[in-house]
Amino acid sequence: MARKTVDFNKSGIGKLPNDKPVLYKIQSDGGKTNYAGVAKRGRIQERLAEHLPGAKDYVPGAKVQVEQRKTIEQAKATESRVIARTKPKYNDQGK
Question: What domains sit in the chain, N to C, each tagged with a CATH number?
Answer without folding.
Answer: 3-86 (3.40.1440.10)
